[in-house]
């Protein structure tokens, strides 16, 4: 379902950079705020709205706050490397929480969005509940483990054999109209989070991952290290689990339990 009413807001990121935020659902005493952060190469619409997850969550009583990360979607995509210091995405999303006046909210993300969520927690964010999807423990403690793969894709566009992983990644980049220069700089923003810090997160947390997704390490290891977690296995791999209706359903099941 893609015909949900969506309000566009703009906040100022860490350095004043305009960050687009898409708000879906009504702000009433009955609704609850849920901030969801999309994955690398993607955007809020592709990750959360296109495949029906947003509609399912709005129906369950949530107002969704969906930022486009810097370098992605409708947010600014500067080509200056100085605009992508370590933890820049974390800074932007902490600014979102502050500028939108969120005090009682839930927080989550897919892949890079999950990593950004973890960095926000490590930096003092205080959501009531957390969703980490498309993410394993290694993807948090060794964030550039896949950096060489993405650098190869972004610097050799148009050279990959049809059907290969690199070709499919480039195809996804084309569907989201990604900016290769900005996305290459995004890799410089990654910051590792150590296991002890992750083990200290007290919030109830859903760890949701595709059955065939080990792109960011083992998601069960992540669930095991968190003190209050539920593990949800859904069909798919890293690229297609996000398209499955089971992702949105797992989120609803966790948040309404």
Molecular structure report:
With 257 residues, this protein is α/β, with parallel strands linked by helices. It is 35% helix and 19% strand. It has eleven helices and eight strands. Helix 10 (219-225) links the parallel strand 7 and strand 8 (229-234). The longest helix has 12 residues, at 88-99. The radius of gyration is 17 Å and the shape is globular. The model has no long low-confidence stretch (mean pLDDT 96).
Topology summary:
Elements: E1 6-12, E2 18-24, E3 32-37, H1 44-49, H2 53-59, E4 62-67, H3 88-99, E5 105-110, H4 112-122, E6 130-133, H5 138-141, H6 147-155, H7 165-175, H8 180-186, H9 195-199, E7 205-210, H10 219-225, E8 229-234, H11 245-255
Helix pairs in contact: 2-11, 3-4, 6-7, 6-8
| Low-confidence regions | none
Approximately what portion of the residues adopt beta-strand conformation?
15-25%
Secondary-structure class: alpha/beta
Q: What integer is the average pLDDT?
A: 96
As a percent range, the share of helical residues equals 25-40%
CATH superfamily: Alpha/Beta hydrolase fold, catalytic domain
CATH architecture: 3-Layer(aba) Sandwich
Quickly count the helices.
Answer: 11
* Secondary-structure element order, N to C: EEEHHEHEHEHHHHHEHEH
The radius of gyration computed from the alpha-carbon positions, rounded to a whole number of angstroms, is 17 Å
Overview features:
257 residues, globular, 19% strand, Rossmann fold
